[in-house]
Every structure is written in C-alpha cells, then in structure tokens.
Amino acid sequence: MRPRLLGLATFACALAAVACAPGSDADGATGSSSGEASSGAEATGTVTLGFSVSNGVRMGPNLQDALVGPVYGALYLTSEVTITGPAEGAVPIVAIELDEVDLSTVEVAEVTWTSAPLPADRYTVLAMLDLDGNFEQSDELPDPGDPVTLPTQAFEIIAGEDMSFVVIFDMIYG
Amino acid sequence: MKRAIVASIALCGSLGCADGVIDEPSAMDEVIDERVAIPADEPGVLSFAGAEFLVEPGEDKVMCMSVDYDGEDIAYHDARSLQGRGGHHVVLLGAREPQPAGTVEDCSNSADMAKYEVLMIPQALPPGYGTRLPGGRNMVIQSHYINTTDRPILVRDFVQFDTMPMEDVETWAAPILLGTLDLAVPPHQTAETSFDCVLEQDLELLLLTGHMHEWGTRFQVDVGPSTDELELLYLVDPWRAEFRDVPPVTLYLQDPKPLAKGTILRTSCAWASDQAETLVFPGEMCITVGIVAGPRDPIECRVGG
Q1: Do the Cβ atoms of A170 and B121 come within 8 Å?
Q2: Does B209 contact A13 at a Cβ distance shorter than 8 Å?
Q3: Rounded to whole angstroms, how far apart are CA atoms B223 and B212?
C-alpha cells in the first residue's frame, strides 16, 4: 500500500492528518482482523470497532451525500497523536479499511472491524468515511463532504481482553 | 525577508524556573526527553520557543510563557505547531495582561484563557493569502501536554511561521472571534444562550469553529441577512468535553464563503452542569472562532459584560 494521508482540519484549539506509513497493511473487512502487531512476549488484547456519526454531522449543512461508503483509517498510539494529528515520525500501528459502512439510517453501523492482537496500550483512531467513493482519485485524502474523526477517538487495549469501541465521525471535512 | 528568531531565552536555565520547570538535575535519569530540537535558522521562517517544563506521569498540564515579537510587522501564510510525544497543542496567543518576556505560568485552568486572545490559528492559507503578525506584540506560547507514560517527560515546544513580504500579500486573512460574557449555568441544571454579531464589512469565511468548555452540550452558528432569514452554518451536536481543545472545524479554503456587510452571525450554546456553583465566563464559554479573508486586523465581537 502506498503512503496515505487523511487530512483533517481542526483548530485550537487545530488539524489532524493521518499518515499510514508505507507498508502498513489494510484489509479489515467485517469481523476480520488486519495489520501486523508486534507480538513476541508482550501482553496483547484486541479491539472491535463500531462506527457512528454525531448528530452534528448528520444534520450539518455541509453533508452532501448519503452516509454510506468505505472507511479508511489507522490506529496510532495515543501518545503519538496531537490535536493536529500524528506527531512527526509517528507510525501507524495498523491500517483500517472497510468496503462499506452504512450509517444512513442507523446510529451505529452493523459492520465492525476487529484488530489482530495488539500490545496493551492506549490507541487513537484516525479515520474517514469516503461518501463519494473517490478515495483513490483524491490522493487518498478526504475531500469536502467526507465525515472524518477528530484525534479524540481513543481507547485502551487491555491484555487478554477484546475491547469494544465505537468510532464517531464528528466532523465533515472541508 | 526576516531571519528566523529563536526565543532561546525560553530555556529555563537562563530565567529562573517557575513551578513545574526542571530544577532537580538528579531526577533527570528517569526523565524522557521530548523537547523539540531547536529549529535551524531558515530564511523566511519565524520560530518561537515555548517553556521547558516537566510533565509528571498521568499529569495533564498547560503552561504559558510570555514572549515578545520586537520585529516589524510581518505577514505569514502558514503557522505550525511543533511538539514532542504527549503534546496536545501549542499555540501563540496575544496577551491581554503582558508579562515580561520569559515569564512562565501554569495556565491549566481553563479560566486562564480570559487573559489571552486568539492570534494564531495553525492553518496553511491558500496562495496569496497572508496574516499580519504585528510588531511589538506581547504574546504567550501556550503548551498543553498529557503524559500517559509512567515516567516524567521533559518538553519544549516551538511554533513556526512561514513568513512572506507584506507587499506580496494579495488577500489578507485574520482571525475572527465572536463571544458573549452573558452566560450563567445554574448548579446541576441546563442552560442555553444565543447572541448575534453583525458584520461591519464584506469578507469571506475561510475557517469556522466553536469553543465551549467541559459542560457544553450543543454549539450552533446560523447566518443570514436578517434574523428572519437565518440558515444553519455550523453545528456540533453533541458537544463533548474534549472539544474544548479539539473542536470540529469547517474549512472553506477551497471555496471561501462570502459574507456581506450587515450579515448576522448568530451563535447558540447549550450546557448541562454537574457543578455545585453557577458556571459563568470564563469557566464556561460560548465563542465562535474563525479565519476570514479581507480584513487585515482581527475581528472581535464581544457581547455583554
């Protein structure tokens, strides 16, 4: 997979960018796991991600398409994510890619994504919902109208447990 | 072109250290050094260093260091935040209560934000756009860190501006801030407020976001030529506590949104308090923040007080 960037603007109060490093793998269809986790003797656990949108996105004036499309993103160590996105040199732990996530009529999509075993730690999800299906054509970046996450979507992986976390797309890009 | 300025006076050792700043070298063995390297001196890049301080394991800390910009007025087209791991944000703010350069204060209390004003929004502007950084300005570098490791971290941030000659600016861009001081959230109750600001000149909207604190539940901005013709412009529902520092942002960089003189911008906020005391400004806030094209100086509309 070639490097990808999901740009995402914020203030601060900031902006975030997701950089999936070359070689980070993405599959992660429903119920499957994806990516490589450093294993060895480390205590590991897994996470199952669900997907949702805030009411602000659903009702927002900049939403242009039905809330259904592929999800692209990555997990990062939370310690390597700032409010403007991954810190310089941060490497995505695992990429996330789902063919179709449908949030048009439900609060939480039926499709989920489950990780391979990952070292116990705190992780942040940076992701986008590609509503207009032009991820490849837009340099693997979100474009105006795509729901994106803010770098606040963090969860803990606990050794020996399968955690659940609902990723919320809080912002319409652009 | 201006040369880079590195505010090396930020380094604690030359200043006498405020609370939270390294003063026990013997404890340095276990400290993780997350200080950003001092940027190389580059033509056209203006750099300001933040305070150097320790963040203990599990600590959520915001430190502010006063800096001065003694150069001439200059324009910039990009502003960047440089932080180490655990960094949440670093920004350059205008100081309402100027302190001597190098003064370091713990500004972790959100109420401290009343002492500052928006000066820098870390956002690259389209070609030809520039924001003015006024000479002689008293400013503050605000650094926020959350240490999720089990060892102390030593930090020092930088903010950088990619500058451009004033004469090369084709379109000026400036921060806009619309806020109210008239808010009160009674103990253990919900409350709402809204206020209108009327634009006094034509401009174009480039970026828009909202600002509330931990007890915000909903934030909305409507826009229109009259109070009877308002349309939804920006909505965060629900507002969550973490949006205090990382709010959803709407960008209009590719397609600036024109707003004519006389346009009404209505900001509406809702809160739910679990506190024993009434929440008022600056403990809570209801502020619309943005970048607009057209004006050379920041636009501010403050209601009430």
Answers
A1: no
A2: yes
A3: 19
